[in-house]
Amino acid sequence: MGSYYFDNAATSFPKAPGVGEAMADYLTRVGCNVGRGDYQPAYAAAERVLEVREKLCRRFGGPDPRNVIFTPGCTYGLNMVLKGLLRPGDKAALSPMEHNAVLRPMKQLEGQGVELAWLPCTDTGELLLDRAAEVITSDLRLCVLTHVSNVCGARMPVEEVGRLCRERGVLFCVDAAQSAGILPLDMAAMGIDALVMPAHKGLLGPQGLGVLILADGAAQAMEPLISGGTGSRSDLLEMPAFLPDRLEPGTLNLPGIYGLGAALDWWEGQDQAALRRREERLTGHLIARLAEYAEDGLRVLGPGEEGRQVGVVSVDFLGRDNAECAYRLERDFGIQTRCGLHCAPLAHKTLGTYPQGAVRFSVGPFTRFEDIDYVQGAVGELLSG
Ligand SMILES: Cc1ncc(COP(=O)(O)O)c(C=O)c1O
Questions:
Q1: Ligand 1 pocket: which of 178, 212, 310 to mutate (most atoms within 8 A of CB)
Q2: Cα of 99 to ligand 1 centre, how many Å?
Q3: Contact 8/362 with Cβ under 8 angstroms?
Q4: Does 224 score more than 90 pLDDT?
Q5: Residue 145 bridge partners (DSSP)
Q6: Which atom, in ligand 1's list, is nearest to the CA of 201?
Q7: What is the pLDDT of residues 240-257, one digit of tens each?
Q8: Would the CB of 98 count as within 6 Å of ligand 1?
Q9: pTM of the shown model
Q10: Cβ contacts of residue 232 below 8 Å, gap of 6+?
Q11: pLDDT per position as a tens digit, 114-134
């Protein structure tokens, strides 16, 4: 029995070719810090870090490589934005499809006097744009929205929400945890003020590293959540005023940045449109294969259409224990999925799968079509057993 990895929404695997080698190369051959040491290898490493910022800035339509902030992860970046921008008395909008990386800081902020406004969604996890437009009013300080649901893969209309936010003077933060590397993203074109992502999902980089890209206005408005040494303006007892230093205290995750740099190099050598088309076809294939069991007690969550969702497809084994089904998929067929509430309890309430949760299958660029056929066979056996 082989092993079939269908948990790319948790973290992608395998990583892009060259990522592990680049990280090992940094640790074994480079090793030094950046922004601290006045010697050649430190300058060369700083140049590579800048190059990675430039690549990210280009890829995501950021205003300037200095506005690309490295963080210890997506959760960390989201906390930086939300807690750096919102103050007691402010009002902020979010959707019930958010991950706990947004929900929990927002509930914490609510406890400190921030008023929350909810953007309504359908039972397929999609934003009701007309009704959302009534919630996004000019008295909001911020609107935060996931680009893609990590539970059902539903795509959110970030471009339209970005336009509304811009018209109404509201800052717009996008959680791109499930879309960066998968869907096109352009901050300038989409009206995004803060774009937050992890390195380790769709970008095919390593864990322990995240990226936050800020428009100039948001960067100026944000208070640093964490402060500390930057290797620059050490005479000051406050954080330096300039980016990225103002928001990037402490030693950077340099092995991680080298790894992400290698992933971005790999991406640049690919036909991205072809990869995007392949991801769409894989998604359509996975939805169609699972939907064949609609009459046999399998409910496929989400929009159920490849253009409206990405390759994150969850199912509810009606009348059965989803955890047991996920366990049997692994034990009997070697299929690795994720079961439960996926750190998004309100998304499950919206989709009608709370508290039982769902079994999530998520594909990556190295998933094969025949792996999906194998999943179909395994699910069929499970349902008939
Ligand atoms: C939509 C969404 N947002 C945020 C996160 C948090 O990412 P990380 O755990 O890498 O910080 C995840 C992780 O699964 C996610 O799916």
A1: 178
A2: 7
A3: yes
A4: yes
A5: 174
A6: 10
A7: 999 999 999 999 999 999
A8: no
A9: 0.98
A10: 35, 240, 242, 245
A11: 999 999 999 999 999 999 999
Report in angstroms the alpha-carbon separations of 294 from 299, 380, 381: 6, 11, 14
Closest CA to 126 of 90, 158, 91: 158
Burial of 276 (0-12, 13-18, 19+ CB in 10 A): middle
Instruction: Measure the CA–CA gap between 176 and 182, rounded to whole angstroms.
Output: 10
Taking the centre of ligand 1 as the mean of its atom positions, its distance from the CA of residue 177, in whole angstroms, is: 5
Beta strands in the chain (DSSP E): 4-5, 68-71, 91-94, 115-118, 142-146, 171-175, 194-198, 210-214, 298-300, 312-317, 335-336, 338-340, 358-362
SS3 label, residue 340: strand
The Cβ of residue 212 has, within 10 Å, a number of other Cβ atoms equal to 27
Q: How does DSSP classify residue 307?
A: G
- pLDDT the model gives residue 257: 98
Going by their DSSP bridges, the two strands 358-362 and 338-340 should be labelled as antiparallel
CA gap 307, 169 in Å, rounded: 30
Can you give the residue ranges of every domain in the chain?
Answer: 4-14+271-384, 19-268
Q: Which atom of ligand 1 is nearest to the CA of 150?
A: 16
pLDDT tens column, 303-331: 999 889 999 999 999 999 999 999 999 99
In angstroms, the CA 260 to CA 253 distance is: 11
Measured CA to CA in angstroms, residue 91 lies from 145, 169, 276, 326, 383 at distances of 15, 13, 36, 40, 47
CATH 3.40.640.10 fits 19-268, yes or no: yes
CA of 292 relative to ligand 1 center, distance in Å: 30
**Tokens 């998520």 -> residue:** 362
- What's the CA-to-centroid distance between 75 and ligand 1, angstroms? 6
**For the chain, how long is the longest CA-to-CA vector?**
71
Report the candidate in 346, 368, 348 with the shortest Cα–Cα distance to residue 357: 348
Please provide the DSSP assignment of 64-131 as one string. -GGGEEEES-HHHHHHHHHHHH--TT-EEEE-TT--HHHHHHHHHHHHTTPEEEEPPB-TTS-B-HHH
Class of domain 4-14+271-384 as given by CATH:
alpha beta
- Range 324-340 average pLDDT: 97
Q: Across the chain, what does the average pLDDT equal?
A: 97
Mean pLDDT over residues 285-291, rounded?
97
